[in-house]
Amino acid sequence: MTALSGSLADGEHRYPLRVFYEDTDAGGIVYHARYLNFAERARTEVLRLLGIEQTDLRTRFGVVFALRRCSVDFRRPARLDDLVEVRSRFTALKGASMVADQSVWRADEVLAHLTVEVASVRNDGRPTRIPATVRAALQPHLTPMEQG
């Protein structure tokens, strides 16, 4: 199962995926909103590598993660059948949210860069602290952004 979830080393998660027809517009270029899907899949898989299942978070802790804020810098288009890789780093872990720096690559070329803040919310949609087990699993892989 690890291969399906990608790999995690030195705080960076790498998640490969293929661009399918369903990801593209009529011209065979990846539709802009699909980059958000790619990034979410990668965040889910890095958590899975750390032993955290989304369904377990919901049933055991009554917690789900919801996108709070996202900025995307589109640099180059991905196209039908491209093999791309989502690279993710968690850069901040707050009380009820976390920030991820994510990018989509094709070989050695950055296609899109995303900065994502995800909130920990209860089943009723209200914010809640990130469970201690999640915090403990993520903390060793946290790579804060350098101030410049």
Description:
- The protein is an alpha+beta fold and 148 residues long.
- The chain has helices spanning 2-5, 34-49, 54-61, 132-138; strands at 7-9, 12-18, 63-74, 83-93, 97-106, 109-122.
- The protein has a 6-stranded antiparallel beta sheet with strand order 1-2-4-5-6-3.
> What's the Cα radius of gyration?
15 Å
Average pLDDT, to the nearest integer?
94
Order of helices and strands: HEEHHEEEEH
The number of helices is 4
Question: What is the topology, as strand order, of the major beta sheet?
Answer: 1-2-4-5-6-3
Proportion of beta-strand residues? 35-45%
Helix content: 10-25%
Show unreliable segments.
none
- End-to-end span in angstroms? 38 Å
Shape descriptor: globular
Assembly annotation: single chain
Structural class: alpha+beta
The largest sheet, given as strand count, sense and whether it forms a barrel, is: 6 strands, antiparallel
Describe the SSE topology.
Elements: H1 2-5, E1 7-9, E2 12-18, H2 34-49, H3 54-61, E3 63-74, E4 83-93, E5 97-106, E6 109-122, H4 132-138
Antiparallel strand pairs: 1-2, 2-4, 3-6, 4-5, 5-6
Features:
148 residues, alpha+beta, six-stranded antiparallel sheet, 6 strands, 24% helix
Overview in brief:
By secondary structure, the chain is of the alpha+beta class.
